[in-house]
Specification:
With about 70 residues, this protein is mainly beta. Helix content is about 10%, strand content about 35%. The chain has a domain at about 1-35. The protein contains 1 helix and 3 strands. The protein starts with a helix and ends in a 30-residue tail after the last strand.
């Protein structure tokens, strides 16, 4: 994870015998990244990105794509 560490600051970590979780925060955007290390194959990946509303309509903003 060397490339992630150069763009993100390490915030904290949590360890148990079968998993470890590391929390990072982006230097540029403030986005938080959680790296979960498990000894199993990846079964499911969920990505949540908080976006800033630009009006007060109450409608959620949806990201069109990731580039």
């Amino acid at each position: 994870m060397a490339s992630i560490q150069s763009n993100f600051n390490f915030i904290s970590s949590y360890c148990e015998p079968k998993l470890s979780v590391e929390k990072y925060q982006s230097n540029k955007t403030g986005m938080k990244l959680y790296h979960i290390n498990l000894p199993l194959p990846l079964i499911k990946l969920e990505i949540c990105v908080q976006t800033k509303p630009y009006d007060d309509t109450g409608c959620p903003h949806t990201l069109g794509k990731f580039d």
